[in-house]
Amino acid sequence: MANIDDMISHLDDKIDMIAATSVLQQQASDIRTQKINWQSYQQSQMISNEDFNAITALDGDKKSHYLKDNQYQAAKTFLSLLSHVSKDTTIQYLLVMIDDLLSEDRTRVEIFLDYASKRKETVWGPFLSLLNRSDGFIIHMTSRIIAKLACWGQDQMPKSDLNFYLQWLKDQLTLSDNEYIQSVGRCLQMMLRVDEYRFAFVTVDGISTLISILSSRVNFQVQYQLVFCLWVLTFNPLLAEKMNKFNVIPILADILSDCAKEKVTRIILAVFRNLIEKPEDAQVSKEHCIAMVQCKVLKQLSILEQRRFDDEDITSDVEFLTEKLQTSVQDLSSFDEYSTEIKSGRLEWSPVHKSAKFWRENAQRLNEKNYELLRILIHLLDTSRDPLVLSVASYDIGEYVRHFPRGKHVIEQLNGKQLVMQLLGHEDPNVRYEALLAVQKLMVHNWEYLGKQLEKDSEKVPGDKDGAKTISGKA
Fold first, then answer.
1. CA–CA separation, 267 and 314 (whole Å)
2. Euclidean distance between CA atoms 90 and 94, whole angstroms
3. Within 13 Å, how many C-alpha atoms sit on residue 238's CB side?
4. What is the largest CA-CA distance in the chain?
5. How high is the pLDDT of residue 438?
6. Cα–Cα dist 209/213, whole Å
7. Cβ-based neighbours of 287, under 8 Å, separated by 6 or more
8. Three-state SS for 154?
9. pTM for this structure?
10. Which of 266-293 are b and which e, b meaning 16 or more Cβ less than 10 Å from the residue's Cβ?
11. CB-CB contact of 186 with 19 (8 Å)
């Protein structure tokens, strides 16, 4: 585990250098220069003499010396002032003081945690309440402090507070034009290093949110931070196994193909490597390899092999992934290929769909795992807006019905027939055509019988009532 921490810390150091240029850090630099007149607070009796003596000592050159013997008082004064002072500029200054205090020495988080423990209070309440303020700097500097207390202390954040905070971070990510989005990403990068926090993040639907944002166009720095979050999550074997259910591989493969920044390339390759190395179920690793192959990752790897990188990790990951993906291609069965394509949700006219041999041999396999693949196809008919996906899904359902004797009954039970029929009115002519073919197949009870009847009918005189009745009787 130490090795993982070393890897993450190595990248963390580089991130901190970048964070110094973020909006939050630039504003913090300005706030440090705007000294607060603590004496005016004392004279107007807005703060006690005890708090005045403590805050002036903490705001001076001998802060470290004061903290050696006065940790309890320091925490008491900071929390008291944050609770009782209303002026935004003073709250901003206090938060910068606390953040600087923690950044200089991570063990100082225990000053606040010990104080709360001794008083049998929660340290989280005073900070979480500040997240309700309207000032952007105040809420995001508070968030940064909460992340440090949660990650650097010996005591983990209680479940209810944790879920509230992670939900808040997730909501901040989805705000349009949030100028503090890098700060939000940084907090998540810290929080998701803690394994227990990872599962809580999944509980608030965090992975879906990351993927949704990554599938839109965001700047490369945010891209890097959010992929970093996915990378840290994949160090947990269980999460690594579940990750591609959120379509992580197709989205990251798209970013990789468009990516011009070396650090984004590096972190995507690191995610891909973890998705192969970390799952304990070998079948899942195999499925991840196939998904990467189908998303044209091998092509990107061959391009990357031609480039020179300063970072040895990139070269190592390119070699590892190339070997694993090439091996998976050699072992790939047509059903593996089909299954992975369906699970990706990115259907296209790959050869297996139009192969009669494939359907004869594999139609029944769509019943496996409680009709998993059929359910996905039907879900795509219901939710996809892509005409290509709808066309291929309709065709596959028709072929399943044609080659599996009870297929019509199964599709009706899964509500597939109704969805296919709705597509008869689709605006795209290709979708209408494939839906019509599928409906025709759904209406026929016995394909072998129909074939023989068609042969007989070709010998009958057009308009023969018996022939017409035979076919319509079976339709």
1. 9
2. 6
3. 5
4. 112
5. 94
6. 6
7. 244, 336, 339, 340, 343
8. coil
9. 0.75
10. bbbbbbbbbbbebbeeeebbbbbbbbbb
11. yes
Helix (H) or strand (E) holding 159: helix 159-174
SS3 content of the chain, % helix, strand, coil (to 5): 80, 0, 20
pLDDT tens digits, one per residue of 384-435: 999 999 999 999 999 999 999 999 999 999 999 999 999 999 999 999 999 9
CA 235 to chain centre: 14
* Amino acid occupying residue 124: W
Share of the chain above pLDDT 70, in %: 89
Q: Provide the H-helix boundaries in 20-70.
A: 23-32, 38-43, 49-58, 63-69
pLDDT, residue 331, reads: 73
DSSP code, position 45: T
Task: Compute CA 221 distance to the chain's CA centroid, rounded to the nearest angstrom.
Answer: 16
Q: Which residue has the tokens 């202390």?
A: 153
Assess contact for 209 and 170: CB atoms under 8 A. Answer: yes
Q: How far is CA 147 from the centre of its chain?
A: 19
User: What's the rounded Cα separation, in Å, for the pair 219 and 228?
Assistant: 14
pLDDT digits (tens, 9 = 90+) for 55-75: 999 998 888 889 988 999 999
Closest CA to 180 of 228, 222, 117: 222
- What local confidence, expressed as pLDDT, does residue 168 receive? 96
Helix ranges (H only) for 204-355 are: 206-215, 220-233, 237-242, 248-258, 262-277, 282-294, 297-305, 312-330, 334-344
Give me the chain's average pLDDT, please. Answer: 88
